[in-house]
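F.,

This is the one I mentioned.
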């Protein structure tokens, strides 16, 4: 399973507001294709994010995510719930995060990754630092690694 944060991983971390006050997020099409490739290979997908956004629900639904947990201060609790739901061991899970709230999960999983522009505290903890920055195909880069080494 691949689990990830949203802001700063699937997006560039910016929070955009429309003229009517609606929140907007930009997602990268490369990540969408990475999700499709992972799903075809039987890899489950999950999101754990500290914010709440309808755009996250929509994108996760479009891409067939198996678990979406929003509005969480303690990401480790959501991680444990996902792990238990699917009967997975830590070693069977990869996680992508970019900021301090992600560290407890990054330290538990079998494979951890971060965007190139993640916080220094995160970059020191992960197994892999992506070439891509947040919102620029990070999930696709990690997806390709998983598919390459999973065989």
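My design for it:
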């Amino acid at each position: 399973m691949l689990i990830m944060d949203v802001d700063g991983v699937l997006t560039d971390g910016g929070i955009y507001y429309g003229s009517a006050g609606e929140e907007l997020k930009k997602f990268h099409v490369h990540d969408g294709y990475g999700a499709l490739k992972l799903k075809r290979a039987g890899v489950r997908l999950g999101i754990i994010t500290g914010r709440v956004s309808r755009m996250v629900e929509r994108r996760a639904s479009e891409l067939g995510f198996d678990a979406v947990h929003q509005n969480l201060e303690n990401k480790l609790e959501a991680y444990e719930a996902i792990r238990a739901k699917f009967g997975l061991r830590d070693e069977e899970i990869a996680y992508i995060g970019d900021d301090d709230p992600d560290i407890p999960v990054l330290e538990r999983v079998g494979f951890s990754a971060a965007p190139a522009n993640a916080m220094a505290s995160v970059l020191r903890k992960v197994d892999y630092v992506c070439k891509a920055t947040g919102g620029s195909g990070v999930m696709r880069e990690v997806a390709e690694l998983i598919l390459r080494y999973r065989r």
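The longest helix spans residues 138-150.

Talk soon.
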